[in-house]
Design goal:
Length: 531
């Protein structure tokens, strides 16, 4: 497919103007005060040794596996009162294993440690489980000396990979193999997010969608992927993972050869394929929201031994729809600026959710208040997706004035969502776990929240997210298992919740659902008829 050369006038418009109507805004008043809740019941909790810096969770049988944002070093994070003191250990730096057979009393029963986890300079931030194959996968990569309390290094000293473990003995996972994402051109590329997709037509076939974001010099090189799709079907039996598709769309954005036009932030952060895998919804940081045709990949039509290029498979024209002040932000304002973190379709309905994640100004001067929030889109025409509604907390509005330290070191920002037909559970950092009623997606409404009572102290305070006055950082994709919601607070540990608000029957009827795979009830929800 040929693409038109973009003229100067279009470039100026693309860099200066919002490209979509922003839709109506609704505001949830609750969640920003620690130790409060509405329409949630706390079932069980575990502080995870008060270690702080907890990361993603994954569930297998009656066990939860919890990764670590930091590492196995004794490095004090920026802002840690122990900074300069040696040693400054990170306790229990591995992947913790908690028994949730009794959800009122989740109990740590094991830990995956060195040499596979708890390494120096390397985080175990992302975890998934393919339960039918008893396969645990762990994404590892270099953690930051600024925001993760890790030592200085690079991707050579602290390499990245995806490690696979056999869960036949779930308390003592056995290492199988590792995979370093490598493009068709032979370049090793660091992953950031992953989505586990098991083929609905073939339960023995599983693919990982991997975002491999890169926004530096030459990021518009079409041979350096922003997205990879990797077949892991052979891994449980000792075979190798293999790449089947990749794509990069930076080169199609106006002015992308000069990344300053996009604040050096034009990259694919994450992606969500539809249940059947034929469409992939792209969260493109400063680039906005787009839809990609991945039907050839989903339908297993990529010839063996080849890697499909997805570069010309976009359904949404470039530049993607964006919002607020457009792709360049001199300062974060009430209008906002695209920092597209997640893009997720609502199951069985022609709508999608996007969320922006914005840290405090400690990380980037243009970050901070009003942080990031959620947007609902009509995607009936994927070539013309448009915003129909927005959802904010009070802290995301001009009615709120940040307390001393909040603007710098807290984030009242949306983060990882798990989506049902009429409900969204969104881990909203300092806003707690948010329940959002989207029965009318043009007018999303707060249906409840849970903000935990913070621990008195933790071993490793998050340098960027909990140094301010709010000590809540709800972070992970919520996992719904047998009607209960399992979620991780970076600082405060594991929480098991029961939702009791509007549409509670939807959550109560879930056997298994998570926001980063198509497992469990995802198929049933996707087949639901639209209202």
């Amino acid at each position: 497919m040929k693409r038109l050369v973009v003229g100067l006038s279009l470039l100026v418009l693309a860099l200066a103007l919002p490209l979509v109507a922003l839709g109506d805004v609704t505001v949830g008043s609750g969640g920003g005060t620690p130790g409060t809740s509405l329409n949630f019941t706390l079932v069980g909790t575990n502080p995870l040794f008060s270690r702080g810096m907890n990361a993603a969770l994954a569930v297998y049988d009656h066990y939860v596996y919890i990764g670590n944002r930091t590492d196995g070093s004794d490095t004090c994070g920026i802002g840690d009162p122990r900074r300069g003191v040696v040693p400054c250990p990170h306790p229990h730096p591995g992947i913790l294993i908690a028994d949730i057979a009794d959800p009122t009393n989740p109990t740590v029963v094991g830990e995956i440690g060195s040499p596979y986890a708890g390494q120096v300079g390397i985080t175990t931030r992302e975890l998934r489980v393919w339960p039918q194959k008893k396969l645990l996968m762990v994404m590892t990569f270099r953690c930051s000396s600024v925001i993760h309390a890790c030592p200085l290094g690079n991707d050579t000293t602290f390499p990245f990979d995806i490690k696979f473990f056999d869960l036949t003995d779930p308390v003592h996972p056995a290492f199988i193999s590792s995979y370093v994402p490598t493009s068709v051109a032979g370049q090793q590329v660091k992953p950031h997010e992953m989505f586990l997709w098991v083929d609905p037509k073939n339960p023995d076939r599983a693919l990982l969608w991997l975002s491999t974001p890169f926004s530096g010099t030459h990021s518009d090189n079409s041979a350096r992927p922003q997205l990879m799709v990797v077949d892991i079907s052979a891994v449980p039996s000792g075979g190798a993972a293999r790449e089947v598709a990749e794509g990069n769309w930076n080169q199609f954005f106006p002015g992308s050869a000069n990344q300053a036009n996009y604040d050096f932030d034009l990259a694919l952060h994450s992606m969500t394929p539809s249940f059947d895998g034929t469409r992939t919804y792209l969260a493109y940081l400063r680039g906005g929201f787009g839809v990609l045709d991945t039907s050839k990949v989903a339908n297993d039509q990529v010839p063996a031994g080849t890697v499909e290029s997805l570069n010309d498979n976009l359904l949404t024209p470039v530049p993607f729809p964006t919002w607020g002040t457009g792709p360049h932000c001199d300062g974060h304002t009430a209008a906002g600026c695209a920092e597209s973190h997640s893009a997720v379709p609502l199951p069985g309905r022609p709508f999608a959710l996007t969320i922006d994640e914005v840290y405090g100004s400690f990380t980037t001067p243009s970050f901070g208040w009003p942080w990031g929030w959620a947007r609902l889109w009509n995607i009936a025409q994927p070539r013309r997706p448009h915003i129909i509604g927005q959802y904010k907390l009070l802290q995301n509005t001009s009615a709120y004035t940040p307390a001393p330290g909040e603007n710098e070191f807290n984030s009242y920002s949306s983060h990882n969502p798990t989506v049902l037909r009429n409900l969204i559970f969104d881990s909203w950092h300092s806003g707690g776990e948010q329940a959002i009623d989207v029965s009318d997606p043009g007018s999303p409404v707060q249906a409840g929240w849970f903000s935990p009572t913070p621990l008195a102290a933790v071993a490793n305070e998050d340098p960027a997210l909990s140094r301010g006055p709010n000590k809540v950082v709800v972070w992970s994709f919520p996992i719904i298992r047998d009607g209960l919601i399992y979620v991780i607070d970076i600082r405060n540990g594991l929480y098991v919740l029961r939702y009791t608000g509007p549409h509670a029957d939807e959550a109560a009827g879930i056997s298994f659902l998570e926001g980063n795979s198509n497992l469990g009830d995802a198929g049933r929800l996707a087949k639901s008829a639209a209202p």
